[in-house]
Amino acid sequence: MEVGTSEDLAFACLDGRELHGTLFEVPDGTAKLGTVVIACATAVKAGYYHRYAAFLAANGLAAVTFDYRGIGASRGGPLRGQKMRWYDWGSQDIDTVLAWAMEHSGDLPVHFVGHSFGGFGVGLAAHASGLGRILTVGAQHAYWRDFRFRDKAAHWGRAAVTVPLVAVFGYFPAKRLNMMEDLPAGVALDWARSRRDFTTAAAGTRRATLRAHQAAVTAPILAVAPNDDSYATLPAMERAVAYTPNSRARVVHLRPEDYGESSLGHFALFHSRYRHTFWEQTLAWLRDGTWD
C-alpha cells in the first residue's frame, strides 16, 4: 500500500485560540476522493488516530487529525486558569477544523469520523451542516443513566475523584493517576456531571445556537460501538443521534466475536490490528455509504 506524506497544521479558532493537528495526504498516483476530519475521544491525543488516518489517506481520503484546546499539542500552557467547556470542543474546535477542511477540499466532499465525545461534538459545530457522511464510534456524552447497572457505580466513583481534584489542582491531573491526558477543569466537570440534555450546560442564546447547529446537520450518520463498550450503550447512542433529528441515522452494536475477540471495549477499534476488518468497513461507509 502506497503511503502519502503528512504535514503539521495550525488552526486559528474564531476566539483566538490556536489548535495543532496533522494532514495525511493521499499519495501520488492514488485518486483523491475527499477529506476526512477525525475528532478524538476525551483525554486522548490525536496521535492515537494517526495510523487510522494514514490508512484512509492511502485509500484516497485525505485525513486531518487535531488536538482539542487544553490537550496534547493544543494544550496551550498550564491548564490551571484555562476556562473552557466540553461544548467549546465542538462549537469552536471541531468547527474550526471542519471549516479548514472544507476550504481546502475544492469540489470534493468532507466526511467526519468522531470517537466518543468527538462523535457527539460534531453536531455542535456550525460547519457540520456541510458534511458528506458521518461515522461515530462509541459516541455519547456520558450521561450516567444510560450506563449499564454495573457501570454506573464505576462512573460515579470516577466522578467523585474528579470533582475534589479539580478543586485542588485547578484541572484534572489524569496523568498523575495514569488515566491518559490531563483535562481542563470545565471539561472534566462537564464529563463528571453530564446531564440528560447536554445543551443545558450552555446558557441563554448559546444553548439555542448549539441546538440550531444540531438541527442543521443533514449528513447521514452511522453510529457504531462494540456491545461491551461501557459508555456507548444502545440508549446512550440513541440519545446522541437524537440531537441531530434531520440526519438519517443508523445505530449498530458490534459483536467482538465477529472481529475474533472476546472483548473490544471503548478504545480497541482504532488499533491497527483491525486494519483488514473494522477499518475496511469504515472505508466502505465513508467512500460509498455502505456497511456490512
Quick synopsis:
By secondary structure, the chain is of the alpha/beta class. The protein has helices at residues 50-58, 86-104, 117-121, 149-169, 185-192, 204-216, 234-242, 278-288, and strands spanning 6-12, 18-24, 34-39, 61-66, 110-115, 134-137, 171-172, 183-184, 221-226, 249-254.
Description of the structure:
The protein is an alpha/beta fold. It is 33% helix and 18% strand.
What's the SSE blueprint?
Blueprint: E1 6-12, E2 18-24, E3 34-39, H1 50-58, E4 61-66, H2 86-104, E5 110-115, H3 117-121, E6 134-137, H4 149-169, E7 171-172, E8 183-184, H5 185-192, H6 204-216, E9 221-226, H7 234-242, E10 249-254, H8 278-288
Parallel strand pairs: 3-4, 3-5, 5-6, 6-9, 9-10
Antiparallel strand pairs: 1-2, 2-4, 7-8
Biggest sheet features: 8 strands, mixed
Q: What portion of the residues fall into strands of 2 or more residues? A: 15-25%
Helix content: 25-40%
Mean pLDDT, as a whole number?
96
Q: What gross morphology would you assign?
A: globular
Query: Which residues form runs of ≥5 with pLDDT under 50?
Result: none
User: What string, H for helix and E for strand, traces the elements in order?
Assistant: EEEHEHEHEHEEHHEHEH
